[in-house]
Write a structure and sequence with these properties.
By secondary structure, chain A is of the alpha/beta class. Chain A is 35% helix and 16% strand. Chain B folds into 2 domains: 164 residues, P-loop containing nucleotide triphosphate hydrolases (Rossmann fold), CATH 3.40.50.300; 89 residues. Chain B is an alpha/beta fold. Chain B is elongated, with a radius of gyration of 21 Å. Classes of the chains: A alpha/beta (608), B alpha/beta (269). Chain A: This is VWFA domain-containing protein.
Chain lengths: 608, 269
């Protein structure tokens, strides 16, 4: 009974003390589709991804009710760093939803302003950035005035003289960002200003390159909504003591909630709900490298297999360049690409379970095979080309000797004149399971088989390749079917023998595919890429580096006259694929089981 | 095929705001009897530049908008039947050669590859136009000049000029003008005040940042002028921006909404 009443009281007091207007809340998800475009138009870096920010303790004095309820300690502020733009997950600051929505756009415009390190303190930085926005964009200025007018009554006036002076300075800076105003000193931190960027943005947690995998993998089985959240993270070296908890415990040195202690405990796959809630409440999450790994994570540390078990290499390797976005140039001969044949591939027929679908696809694609179109000006044919005949007779009557031109119309069998190279991602991440769809690699195998069935039915030239990588000196490029080969049981056997492994150095694989495709004589050349995630590799090829290199490789392919297109099963591909392939250059398959149909359907519509 | 635009008097010179030294280059090329190739995105002022220069040099201008069905006969001329008899009729290229004017082939990559071959003898030092059908061989007078243009960032990556054709021209690269220059253009052509023109140009700069990521083609100076004209004739600013700047660029609802948000940073209420 006490618990129940306590629960009610807690709910009641929290609701009473809550300062926002939940009924007018606008979520980041509502504007997510417009946000990247708007941010870029404002001058923001196009390579940044959008993420939700998490609460930070602001430390300012709270209202009495809030202190009773134990709420209002944290506030979600916007900021950006070298990788991402962080915006609050939802904004319910104002009673009017339109204002809350406008606040998102204001924050994006503000964050897109160039940052100068010599800009002084938090207030000056924000004041100057605001002033720059207002001077350049009069429409935005009107929006800003509305926001400030709505915001000022919502801010408390502190009773303490120093705090009141500070608040007055902030209000003045909000109302007149052009005027030079300094922040007077005060013991307590000022009330947070939601119209401004974060005073002390959290440091990027990607400082250590090889740690990148760990947090991502941990996320993969936690709740989707929390996935993009970013906690104030602090990096620490592992505690030297083996058993952190077994130190001589002195009652007066009680650890605080978020202090780092190395607990000698085997990590197991526990319920992530509690951890998520705990992470919400903590000011700082400390991450350090542990020598122990979860069993499920072990697979990401594979070394090279023994030579006897490896795929059969073909030749010594091809040197390919790679794009370094920091230096903005191509580094020549940076990667070594090794063409290989899958090991243990024995000729095999199409698996029985794929037969019905394959039959249907073959029928569909036979219909796609080249239509006959009428051609005029042929030397022979069933019809007379009247236009040309009239012109010829007119010329003849003018008395000038003209050679007889071809004067017939014909219906020669047309050629589609189309070549397609399908490049499949075979990195280890394709080993993961996708619910009922089974393993990603299984879906990719089926898709390759069915795609090949369909294309051989319509008669277009095509090649099938797969890729994975282990650092820059070994980009593995698996030959499944080249353009000259026939699609038969040998190639089917190679597809069926595919095994996932290693990482995704996508840029090198795309460059090699571009070379192969350029050798094809067809008029239109399509480069289809099937993927399940972002480009990444063991070395620095991750995050922005990998994305930028892949983008360059795609641009090179486009410049060479190819049509690159990406099909992915990664549900979050919307964050990075538009940057890589352009808005119309990719497609996300939400239900992986439908990948074969989507792939063939896409081919039909792309080449129609 | 467009009707030839004959030379106008100097007082009726079509407005053109020079960006760099393109006018001098063009005039020198004309004096030296060299053909000119102009590259640049849609709506950046290529056609206007040629019209301006033709008027300035006092030459008749023959403009041909190229398309994929354009044949050599469409350029050179053909026999027509008239009153039971046939009569030779000059094409725009032949007329330009005969009259010693400027022949301007707009979007020349759109024309079929074999069509551009008739240009070759005109673009080297021979400067002749052989007309097979009448047995004539025209020698181009000193006033004649060949000008072609194309848009390198065009949708069809496969369509580009053959190197053998490109090599025959003096080339000028056009782009959207600098903000101050573009402001003057919008102000003059659109008939709006300086402040509004500056706002439109700032807005265009913001939208042009999206080229290649979210938009295939950027907003052109031409669209800015259209927008300014709509505003000058009394249309609401937001509506004018929507119809002249936003809607022509995309069909996707999300992109349109985001572009309108960008418009609002200049013209929001």
């Amino acid at each position: 009974m006490e618990d129940l009443v306590g629960g009610w009281w807690d709910k009641l007091i929290r609701r009473t003390a809550y300062r926002g207007y939940p009924q007018a809340a606008v979520a980041l998800a509502d504007i997510e589709k417009q946000a990247p475009l708007f941010f870029r138009a404002m001058g923001g870096d196009p390579a940044l991804t959008l993420r939700t920010a998490v609460g930070t303790a602001h430390g300012a004095r709270r209202r009495l009710l809030e202190r009773i309820a134990g709420t209002g300690e944290q506030v979600e502020l916007a900021w950006r760093d070298g990788q991402s733009l962080y915006l609050p997950e939802k904004i319910d600051l104002f009673p009017d939803a339109a204002r809350n929505r406008e606040l998102y756009f204001w924050l994006m415009a503000l964050a897109a302003q160039p940052q100068h390190s010599d800009d002084g303190d938090w207030l000056t930085r924000n004041r100057r950035a605001s002033a720059a926005c207002l001077a350049a964009m009069p429409g935005l200025a009107a929006l800003y005035r509305r926001l400030v007018t709505a915001l000022l009554p919502l801010r408390d006036t502190p009773r303490d003289a120093a705090a009141a002076a500070q608040e007055a300075a902030i209000r003045a800076a909000l109302q007149q960002p052009e005027a030079a105003i300094a922040l007077p000193p005060c013991r307590t931190p000022p009330q947070p200003v939601l119209l401004w960027l974060h005073p002390t943005p959290p440091t990027a947690p990607t400082a250590g390159a090889d740690d990148k995998q760990t947090p991502e993998m941990e996320d993969s089985d936690s709740k989707e909504t929390k996935k993009k959240r970013r906690y104030r993270a602090r990096r620490d070296t592992a505690d030297e003591r083996k058993n952190g908890m077994l130190l001589v415990f002195r009652a007066e040195s009680i650890f605080t909630w978020d202090e780092y202690v190395r607990v000698n405990r085997h990590t197991d796959d526990d319920d992530m709900d509690d951890a998520g809630a705990a992470a919400e409440d903590m000011n700082t999450l400390t991450i350090s490298r542990d020598n122990r790994r979860r069993a499920s994570r072990l697979k990401f540390d594979l070394d090279l297999p023994a030579a006897a078990y490896d795929d059969t290499p073909l030749g010594s390797g091809i040197l390919l360049p790679e794009w370094d976005y920091r230096r903005q140039r191509l580094v020549a001969e940076h990667c070594c690409l090794k063409p290989m044949l899958p090991r243990d591939a024995t000729p095999a027929p199409l698996p029985d379970k794929l037969q019905p679908l394959a039959r249907r696809l073959r029928r569909q694609f036979q219909a796609l095979s080249p239509e006959r179109t009428r051609k005029s000006g042929e030397a022979s044919g069933p019809d007379i080309d009247l236009d040309r005949l009239i012109r010829f007779l007119a010329e003849k009557r003018s008395g000038v000797a003209v050679a007889e031109p071809p004067l017939y119309q014909a219906w020669p069998p047309g050629g589609r004149n189309m070549a397609c190279l399908l490049l499949a991602d075979l990195s280890l991440s394709t080993e993961s399971w996708l619910g009922e769809a089974g393993q990603v690699i299984g879906v990719i195998r089926d898709s390759l088989l069915l795609f090949a069935e369909a294309l051989s039915a319509c008669g277009d030239d095509f090649g099938l390749y797969g890729f994975s990588s282990i650092r820059r000196d070994e980009v593995r490029y698996l030959l499944l079917k080249d353009f000259a080969e026939r699609y038969d049981d040998t190639t089917r056997g190679r597809i069926l023998a595919l095994r996932p492994g290693y990482y995704t150095r996508m840029g090198a694989a795309i460059r090699q595919s571009t070379r192969i495709l350029l050798e094809q004589p067809a008029q239109r050349r399509l480069l289809l890429i099937v993927s399940d995630g972002k480009p990444n590799d063991l070395d620095h090829y991750e995050g922005r580096y990998g994305v930028e290199d892949t983008r360059q490789a795609v641009l090179e392919a486009k410049r060479a006259g190819l049509i690159p297109f990406c099909v992915t099963v990664d549900k979050e591909a919307g964050e990075y694929l538009p940057h890589l392939f352009g808005r119309r250059g990719y497609s996300v398959v939400h239900d992986a089981r439908r990948l074969p149909q989507v792939l063939t359907g896409l081919y039909a519509s792309l080449t129609a | 095929m467009n009707a030839p635009v004959h030379a106008k008097l100097a007082s009726q010179l079509p407005f053109y705001q020079p960006v760099a030294d393109e006018c001098t280059v063009f005039e020198t090329a004309w004096r030296q009897q060299l053909p000119v190739l102009i590259k640049g995105p849609t709506g950046c002022g290529k056609t206007r530049f040629v019209a301006h220069m033709a008027a300035k040099l006092g030459l008749p201008l023959f403009t041909v908008s190229c398309h994929d069905d354009l044949s050599a006969a469409d350029l050179v001329g053909r026999h027509l039947i008239a009153g039971g008899d046939t009569r030779w009729c000059d094409g725009p290229l032949t007329r330009a050669v005969r009259e010693g004017g400027i022949c301007y082939l707009d979007e020349v990559v759109e024309a079929r590859k074999d069509t551009t071959v008739v240009l070759h003898p005109l673009t080297d030092d021979r400067r002749i136009l052989p007309i097979e059908r009448t047995g004539e061989e025209l020698q181009a007078p000193p006033g004649f000049m060949l000008v072609v243009s194309f848009n390198p960032g065009y949708q069809h990556v496969l369509k580009t000029l053959k190197p053998s054709t490109r090599q025959r021209f003096v080339a000028l690269s056009f782009d959207f003008p600098l903000p101050e220059v573009e402001r003057a253009v919008v102000q003059h052509e659109g008939g709006v005040d300086e402040r509004l023109a500056a706002q439109l140009v700032t807005l265009a700069g913001q939208i042009r940042r999206l080229t290649g990521y979210d938009l295939d083609e950027a907003v052109s100076t031409r669209l800015l002028v259209y927008c300014a004209k709509l505003i000058a004739s009394g249309m609401g600013v937001r509506l004018a921006c929507r119809t002249a700047l936003v809607e022509p660029l995309s069909d996707e609802a999300d992109t349109l909404a985001a572009l309108m948000a960008v418009v609002d940073t200049q013209f929001g209420a």
